[in-house]
Amino acid sequence: MPRKPSSDRKPSTASSPADTKRAPTLASFRSEIDRIDKELITLLNHRAEIALQIGQLKQKQGLEVWSAAREDEVIARALATSRGPLPAETLRLIFRELMSGSRSLQRTMRIACLGPKYSYSHLAAVAKFGEAVEHVPVGSIAAVFEEVNRRHVQFGIVPLENSTDGRIADTLDMFVRLPGLKIRAEIRLRVHHCLLSRSEWGQVQRIYSKSQALSQCRHWIGKNLPEARLIDVVSTAAAAEHAQREEFSAAVASQAAGVSYGLKVLAANIEDQPHNITRFAVISERSEERTGRDKTTLMLRVPNQPGGLVEAISLFKKNGINMTWIESFPTSDGASDSDPNYLFFLDIDGHADDEPVKKTLDLVRKKCERLEILGSYPRGECIES
Ligand SMILES: O=C(O)C(=O)C[C@]1(C(=O)O)C=C[C@@H](O)C=C1
């Protein structure tokens, strides 16, 4: 049975500084905060004990520890309940870490992402799962997929597309190779790039970064450092490592990477588009249940003939299903020298278990040579990096 909190007393106001005749002092305010903290700790531990019991139930029923839908619900309720003055973002972070802590009591979760730490993939992982998980940075997007596929980790974080720069080919390619892995959630991270260095602005000769990050800042770099040599490396955090090691070099990376590698911020917010958002996918072996505010990612190949694609996707229009993303992707899958082939990646509104989506997908499948449901998952809110 869940244990009652040791004290169900509402935070008392009787002894609050406002009620005393004398003007409140720093000491009296602080002793009120000490009293509130004590109650908070009791309540937090009571919450953790209940989370532990939920963990035991889940284990008995073979359910997963992480429930994305429930976590979204808890945060949405906290934000709706709050009347301030605590900022909504602060409250969101507090609840994210609370639930990260609850999960870690139930089971240690391992999350793979493109590293080293403080890459944007790592920041996306922290934004979704909090700090109380084991972050496993690996050397490539392909390695993230392999770690999940080999069950070395429960989840992987991979970038799908960027609002300035488009699709991430390495990720789409891995979905072609390992279509059995499912997208469980999306993380839409607002990406702010910094120019980081241990040298001064006028000394920078080389700029390291991941190709997509360099591309997202190309106008800024062309205008402000036209002579610098641009060097493409595996991730923005790896770029920060280079900039730490080498004099007269800089990195385009996150501010967090700058702090971690002890670099100066020579310029902040250097992305060309102010709304620079990268959409990441959380991948795992299992699929996600319906929440009522879902989307579905599909991968399909249609016959290489006039109207092949239109015949398939017009069925979404006919059945009132909104399509929010489409990417064509050249592939060797089903291709020959004379007949190159394309796969299409699509997002539609709704969950694959929603009756209208299910019926439509059955019809679409008949028009396709190949149709994979890469996952149905809740639509993600935009999070600041
Ligand atoms: O409600 C659950 O399923 C829990 O395990 C509790 C809790 C929480 O701390 O609120 C923790 C982890 C889950 O991902 C969702 C919520």
From TrEMBL:
Region (Disordered): 1-26
Pathway membership: Amino-acid biosynthesis; L-phenylalanine biosynthesis; phenylpyruvate from prephenate: step 1/1; Metabolic intermediate biosynthesis; prephenate biosynthesis; prephenate from chorismate: step 1/1
Subcellular localization(s) per the UniProt record: Cytoplasm
UniProt-annotated site: Essential for prephenate dehydratase activity, residues: T278
Domain Chorismate mutase residue range list: 20-110
Coiled coil: none
Catalytic activity: chorismate = prephenate; prephenate + H(+) = 3-phenylpyruvate + CO2 + H2O
InterPro entries noted in UniProt: ACT-like_dom_sf, ACT_dom, Chor_mutase/pphenate_deHydtase, Chorismate_II_sf, CM_dom_sf, CM_II_prokaryot, Preph_deHydtase
Matching SMART domains: CM_2 (SM00830)
Prephenate dehydratase domain residues: 110-285
EC number: 4.2.1.51, 5.4.99.5
GO molecular-function terms, A-Z: chorismate mutase activity; prephenate dehydratase activity
NCBIfam families: PRK11898.1
Record's function text: Catalyzes the Claisen rearrangement of chorismate to prephenate and the decarboxylation/dehydration of prephenate to phenylpyruvate.
Protein name as catalogued: Bifunctional chorismate mutase/prephenate dehydratase
Source species of the chain: Singulisphaera acidiphila (strain ATCC BAA-1392 / DSM 18658 / VKM B-2454 / MOB10)
